[in-house]
Each structure stands twice: as C-alpha cells, then as structure tokens.
Amino acid sequence: MLQQRCNPAQCPGYIEQQNLTRVSQFFLLGLSDDLELQPLLLGLFLSMYLVAMLGNMLIILTVSSDSHLHTPMYFFLCSLSLADIGFISTTVPKMIVGIQTHSRVISYGGCLTQMSFLILFGCMDGMLLTVMAYDRFVAICHPLHYSAIMSPCLCCFLVFMSFLISLLDSQMHTLIVLQLTCFKDVNISNFFCDPSQLLHLACSDTFTNNIVMYFVGAISGFLPISGIFFSYYKIVSSILRVPLIGGKYKAFSTCGSHLSVVCLFYGTAIGSYLGSALLPSPRKDVVPSVMYTMVTPMLNPFIYSLRNRDIKSALWRLYSRTDYS
Q1: Which end of the chain has less Cβ packing within 10 Å, N or C?
Q2: pTM for the full predicted model
C-alpha cells in the first residue's frame, strides 16, 4: 500500500507525522461496519442496481423499437437512460463486490478512474436534464416551429455538447486531485471516491484546490439549473396565457415527469455537495450519496414510464409483439 515517504512538513497539523506517506490505495468505509448488516446491504443494493439497469435498458429498447417515439424528446430520454446506466455502474458494482469479498480496498488509479467517470456521468445527467427542459420550452412556447428548431442535427449537437462539457468538468476535477501527493489518512468515509473527501485527506495546502474545485462544481451545477429555471419560467408564462383549463393541464402534464426527475436529482446532489463543502464529518454524506447515485437512476425510468402515456402505449405494443412471437 505504501510507496514513498513524504516530507512531514507538508502536513504540520497531523500528529503521526512519522507515518506520513504516499499511498497506492484507499479504503472505502461504505455505509456500515456492522457485519450482520452486510448481507442485507448486499441484497438491497444488488436489487436496486438490477432494477435500475432493467428499467433504463427497457426505456432504450422501447424508444428504439417504436417509430412513434422517434422524436427529440425521447431521443434525449434515451441519452439520459444511457447516462444513468453509466452513473450507477460506476459505483454500485464495486461496492457489491467489496461487500461480497469483505474487501474495501481501491487502488489509487482505480479511485481516480471511478471519480472521473462518476463526475462525467453525473454532470451529463444534469446537462441532459437542461437540454430536455429546452426541448419542452420549444414544444410549448413555439409549437409551430418545433420540428424546424429541434432538427436531428441540433439534437445530436446538444447531446454531444453535454458530453463534451461533462468530460471537461470531469478532467478538471481529476487534474486537481492529481496534484495531491500526500495523504494523512487512507480511509474514505463513503462507498465511492468522493473528490471533496480526497481534498480533506490531503496533506498539502488545498485551499486553492478547494476554491477551484467548488467553483467548477458550482458553475457546472449553476448553469444547468439556470437553464432549467429559465425554460420553465417561459413555459409557465406561456401556459398561463392559455384560456382553456384543459389546455393548461395538457401542457403542464408534459413537463411533470421531467420536473420530478429534476427535483429528485438536484435536490439530493446539491444537498450532498453543499454538505461536504460546509460541514465535513464522517459518513454524513452517505445517505444523500445513495439517493443521487442509486435511487435517482433507479426511479427515472419509472417516473417517465408511469407518467407518460406514449411510453406506456409503446411498452404495451412491445409486450404484445413479444407475446405473439
């Protein structure tokens, strides 16, 4: 585990300076140390992972196999499902294997890789939710020009830019963590490699890195949220001008699923992010982390399928074709 001894002067506040070393691996403390709870946690998180994978793959299969759903809205929904599959697969399989083998070790390179992909898919989730809000804005506020505005080229461009911005955000966080050479502890109080916790464990002066990391995180979170708020401000303003109550309800109903996912994702993510920044303490971030890394990707397909008449009809047609064949 230990590679090279660091200079104790790099970590003046650490008591055991003689043990200050560079590390080649970390220990993910997970949710609980209680051995009796491990089988329960294994069954719970394995079930959640399988449900999330099945639900998101079913959304992708349904949209791709039904020509009625070959529209921008469902193209973005497929992209969101792919991002959710990547998001939950970054953390949960490692945790399940760790519980099964009673090993909490993750290599330094594995930790950086996990962190990089987690930020990539997490940021992409946020960017795609913003793109979907823009799609609803165009559909409700400019219905006559919807097909011309939301062309296939623009849809692909928006998804590509979402990926590019997410990749940039991920690499910036990774570069910041790569500058940390010595750590006063190897225990990470979570079930995945959280960049904010790695900064807290670092021995070198991380004030500048903290400022840069939280600034980048704030920008990558603030811009999508601003886009969503602006889109829904325009949507609500447009709907309020509709004279018929039935027309208002129909317009609002098309946004209900998206709003539910936005509140679930950003509510848990911002709570965990601000909590780790303002009140760092062991394992207090675990529950919010479970919410936005596991519960949100698991619930997204059900929110969209249960509240969406087109998806339910397409699922029934897919089931009927499979049943008859």
Answers
A1: C
A2: 0.85
